[in-house]
Amino acid sequence: MTPFPRNQWYVAAYRDEVGDDLLGRTVCGEPLMLYRLQDGSVAALADRCVHRRYPLSMGHRDGDRIVCGYHGFTYEPSGACAYVPAQTRIPRTARVPAYPVVERDSLVWVWIGDPQVADTATVPRAPWLDSPGWTVVRGMEPLAARYGLLVDNLLDLSHETYLHGGYIGTPEVAETPITTEVDEDARIVHVRRRMKDVACPPFYARSTGIEGRIDRWQDIEYHPPCLYLLHSRIAPTGVEPGPDGDDSAACHAEIVYAITPETETTTMDFWMVARDFATGDEEVSRFLAESNRTVVLQDVVALNALEKVIATEPAGYQELSINIDTGGLAARRLLRKLVEQ
Amino acid sequence: MSDVTARETARTVYTIRWSPGSDRLHGVCHCGAEHEAEDPVLMWRWLLAHPDHEACDEASRPW
Q: Where is the Rieske domain (chain A) (predicted)?
């Protein structure tokens, strides 16, 4: 059994990363090659020539066809071989797998599993990434750690107090109780932390311009295996949403992560910050991009260290879980269910 | 239709609230059953034992 849930959608790239050039990515242990067709859609093929395994991403394009850079095997976007060198007969097995692809919310999703059961309606959504009224900064950091460690990390934000002090962490994050809700039918883990009259961390003080104490909401919505949403609300303390639901007096940041397993012990950590405040302020964009990347890199250092610890520990090591882990335990269980399906 | 049956046909949602100012966890199963615990592992075990909350098997670990 693979350690990855199969028959699932995973983010392989940002929309802007896929163009005329051939982009090689590995998702759930499967090397892929992505490129944009002349009609604007995206194709994803196995990144391995059927002949001698040469990565197709090291070849070149001939229109929408891909020419292997080693011996010239040429493939259609469907994966069918259109040409083999120096002979007219194309072997029946000369074909590389093609992966279902969906572009949505500025993300390029690929289906890992049986293409026959791929359902584009099940791609989880993050509309703020591609909506008027929102400004987005983003990046991707490679992790030398298994994807489950990033899931653990993001489902328990109390670590912000200790690992990200001076950026997004304040003492109140670790001290505030959480509510965890698991919707088994929709397969979503919710973890809510609502902080009232607390210090504003530099990340939000400088970007929102709010001075003084704040009410801070952290509402996590995790769609296993790949998409993590943190609905972050920041408002001067006492400012509540109106009875009609109007919350325009508050600042909102939608923190989005795509957690894409690369191999058993490496992960692509796609991170995005969408905001509905200071949307035209380039300085705020630069600050948030730099600050969030710093925070993500702090996680990268920590999780890479954890991966090394796991690699050298004796079998059967028993962790200790406490209240802050309630949501993380739920996420682990759902992931295990998906792997076993 | 009884209340319990009505709840059973609703969404399968488990909720765990960490009571402010304490170490107590308050769990609510989708069937409406409620439980108190101080350990999230034990709490999830109890919730996932549905419908046999009473006979919750301490030996079966859900993860």
A: 9-110
